[in-house]
Design goal:
Layout: E1 2-9, H1 19-33, E2 41-45, E3 48-52, H2 58-65, E4 71-81, H3 84-94, E5 100-107, H4 116-129, E6 135-136, E7 143-149, E8 152-161, E9 173-177, H5 183-192, E10 197-204, H6 211-227, E11 232-237, H7 239-248, H8 254-272, E12 277-279, H9 292-299, E13 306-307, H10 315-325, H11 328-331, H12 338-341, H13 353-361, H14 366-375, E14 378-381
Parallel strand pairs: 5-6, 5-7, 9-10, 9-12, 10-11, 12-13
Antiparallel strand pairs: 1-3, 1-4, 2-3, 4-8, 7-8, 11-14
Helix pairs in contact: 3-4, 5-6, 5-10, 7-8, 8-9, 8-14
The structure holds adenosine-5'-triphosphate and magnesium ion (MG).
Adenosine-5'-triphosphate is lined by residues 177-179, 181-184, 201-203, 262, 280-282, 286-287, 289-290, 337-339.
Length: 382
């Protein structure tokens, strides 16, 4: 009986002719995570992958690959010849006496001489006959033994849910405006789950924003990089721009003008990094700068498509996602962001493009400032 780690896909299996392309990238991404395990060998089989190990611990290997996008389930499985005696033995080896159990079968090989219910019944009977205290429970079994009959047969009892989605690198590159807040890391995660590679950009206003605020973003970027490997982070010096807005413009327009500058700089960096879109953590109506009018005014400076995956999400949903992906605890550390520090008492919630342009003109040649900020950005690689 051979033991393997069995990988099943979700959405990739729905792909038609270009499924191979997605599978090959998934295999490469898994292989990258398996580098520390020199004995691990990945084998592609029809709509599945098997990982074969000689020495490494299965649990360590599973922990290393569990966050790879594109994987729907990971199971420790036996691979046996598609023959009833072998299947029964494997199932028995997975069963622990005294527990309730159920056998479920999927028959990929339609030529196999028994139907799926017949296989389940026969394997269940074998377990009952060869143990003392086994009991079947079809509704809430303590052990679910799954049998997949194909050219060879997989038998497994534990499946770990993967993150599903599409493999990183299949969806192009996008530049994420990553603040230290709760929302933007979640937005980045959501796009990464669609196979997108991320370049993160953080606008830092030293000394108004503490060094800890930057450290916080670096930590968030590290967490995101577990899902979107090889991520870069650019820390853009934003103080000069922020000061010039405060000096020259009506303070009510501070946030919206800052956002427009952020978009311009992010777009500049995105283009240099080969990113074809921008991502923000905006959610409609959450704060003054996220009204429809504000979003329109921000969006007007962007030529690249701007993705806002949280736009229709309730804050509670976003918080739950942030907790699940592990960014929440870092995001709630209390260091101020450049946007909160000079926030006016009554920010413009419904700016018109005309009024925004009027205020922006007071800044003179802001393009020079934007270019300078983009060029002076610090670069980190994860
Ligand atoms: P977040 O929780 O992501 O900070 P938020 O609810 O605080 O979002 P805003 O402060 O209005 O919302 O910011 C909206 C979006 O603008 C953020 O989600 C992020 O994408 C971007 N953004 C804001 N401030 C910064 C910053 N200092 N650096 C990079 N991006 C930023
Ligand atoms: Mg914020």
């Amino acid at each position: 009986m051979k033991k393997v780690i069995l990988i099943r896909y979700g959405e990739i299996s729905l792909k038609g002719l270009n499924r191979r392309y997605f599978e090959d990238i998934l295999k490469k991404n898994i292989a990258r995570r398996l580098r520390p395990f020199s004995d691990a060998r990945i084998k592609k089989v029809q709509s599945r992958m098997e990982i074969h190990l000689t020495d490494s611990d299965e649990c360590d290997v599973i922990a290393a690959i569990k966050d790879v996008f594109g994987i729907a389930y990971i199971s420790k499985a036996y691979v046996v010849e598609s023959e009833m005696g072998k299947i029964e033995q494997a199932a028995l080896a997975l069963y622990k006496d005294g527990k309730t159990f159920k056998v479920e079968t999927r028959r990929g090989d339609k030529c196999f001489h028994l139907t799926s219910p017949e296989i389940s019944r026969q394997v269940g009977g074998y377990i009952l006959k060869n143990t003392q205290n086994a009991k079947v429970d079809v509704h809430h079994p303590e052990i679910l033994i799954e049998v997949e009959v194909r050219k060879e047969t997989y038998v497994y009892a534990t499946s770990i849910k993967g993150r599903a989605g599409l493999p990183t690198g299949t969806g192009g590159t996008s530049a994420l405006l990553l603040s230290g807040g709760i929302d933007s890391p979640v937005a980045g995660y959501m796009m990464a789950s669609r196979g997108v590679e991320l370049v993160s950009i953080y606008f830092h206003s030293s000394p108004y924003t503490a060094e800890e605020a930057k450290e916080k973003v670096i930590e968030l970027a590290k967490i995101l990089a577990c899902y979107a490997p090889q991520m870069k982070l650019f820390v853009v010096p934003f103080t000069e721009i922020q000061e010039s807005i405060i000096e020259s413009c009506d303070i009510e327009y501070l946030t919206i003008l800052m956002r427009r500058m952020m978009m311009r700089i992010a777009q500049d960096i995105a283009c240099r990094e080969g990113a074809l879109s921008l991502i923000t953590g905006e959610s409609l109506g959450q704060v003054a700068s996220q009204t429809m009018q504000s979003i329109q005014a921000t969006n007007a400076v962007a030529d690249l498509p701007v993705f806002r995956p949280l736009i229709g999400l309730d804050k509670i949903m976003t918080i739950n996602m942030a907790k699940e992906i592990g960014t929440y605890e870092v995001s709630i550390r209390p260091y101020e962001d450049c946007c909160t520090i000079f926030t006016p008492k009554h920010p413009q919630t419904k700016p018109t493009i005309k009024s925004v342009l009027y205020e922006e003109e007071k800044l003179g040649d802001y393009q020079v400032l934007c270019r300078k900020a983009a060029e002076e950005a610090e670069r980190y690689q994860f």
